[in-house]
Design a protein that fits this description.
The structure holds 2 protein chains of 2 kinds. Chain A is mostly beta strands. In chain A, strands 2, 4, 5, 8, 9 and 10 form a 6-stranded mixed β-sheet that branches. Chain A has a 4-stranded antiparallel β-sheet with strand order 1-3-7-6, with no helix packed on it. Chain A is built from no helices and 10 strands. In chain A, 0% of the residues lie in helices and 46% in strands. By secondary structure, chain B is mainly beta. In chain B, strands 2, 4, 5, 9, 10 and 11 form a 6-stranded mixed β-sheet that branches. A 5-stranded antiparallel β-sheet of chain B has the order 1-3-8-7-6, with no helix packed on it. The radius of gyration of chain B is 13 Å and the shape is globular. In chain B, 38% of the residues are buried. The mean pLDDT of chain B is 91. Classes of the chains: A mainly beta, B mainly beta. The interface between A and B is medium-sized, with 27 and 26 residues.
């Protein structure tokens, strides 16, 4: 594909339900990031995958958040027992192995927890 | 750990006027610095980046930024604003090969006709 894709683009859920967000990175990009962007705020780092290395989970806000990535392809971010404060846009980005390379962002998933 | 401060959450300029968006960073090691633009309901798009070498970096859409180590700054400028420049701009810093970026809170640029 031409760029990073994310699905769904919008998700409305009820408090307490689980949600799963999907990210398809650019082919060949070994690094993948998840960020959270609350309304009117900057990006908050959540988790980082690099190849087969153990992911950097230092940004996950609670144990309700988890993410998986299969090899160097699709990643899913799961939020269990959603809370209203989880409402935000969740952005995924991917890049090539070098740390100086650009992160390419997907359009995001807008999550609304009622 | 690194951090980024963007001075001014909202900046308003007239069409044709100079655009100056301020970014200061903190890093214990030489940083990589980025500016991204976000249009409504879209993801972030890279405007420009500084890694090594020339401290004046030119990006897309006529934007440029200068890395000033002594001032720990990486301000974004454009000589003449266009209506299409209205968007939110984010400064980011990363260190090392992980490329895990720390983002500023963003500056919303409004361009008045």
């Amino acid at each position: 594909g031409a760029g990073v894709s994310q699905s769904p683009s919008n998700k409305v859920t009820e408090k307490g339900k689980d949600v799963e967000l999907r990210c398809d990175p650019i082919s060949g990009h070994t690094a993948l990031y998840w960020y959270r962007q609350r309304l009117g705020q900057g990006l908050e780092f959540l988790i980082y995958f690099q190849g087969n290395s153990a992911p950097d989970k230092s940004g996950l806000p609670s144990d309700r958040f988890s993410a998986e990535r299969t090899g160097e392809s699709v990643s899913t971010l799961t939020i269990q027992r959603t809370q209203q404060e989880d409402s935000a846009v969740y952005l995924c980005a991917s890049r090539r192995p070098s740390g100086t390379d650009t992160q390419y962002f997907g359009p995001g998933t807008r999550l609304t927890v009622l | 750990a690194q951090s980024v401060t963007q001075l001014g959450s909202h900046v308003s300029v007239s069409e044709g006027a100079l655009v100056l968006l301020r970014c200061n960073y903190s890093s214990s090691v030489p940083p990589y610095l980025f500016w991204y633009v976000q249009y409504p309901n879209q993801g972030l798009q890279l405007l420009l980046k500084y890694t090594t070498g020339a401290t004046l970096v030119k990006g897309i859409n006529g934007f440029e930024a200068e890395f000033k180590k002594s001032e720990t700054s990486f301000h974004l400028t454009k000589p003449s604003a266009h209506m299409s420049d209205a968007a939110e701009y984010f400064c980011a810093v990363s260190v090392g090969n992980a490329g895990k970026s720390t983002f500023g809170d963003g500056t919303t640029l409004t361009v008045k006709p």
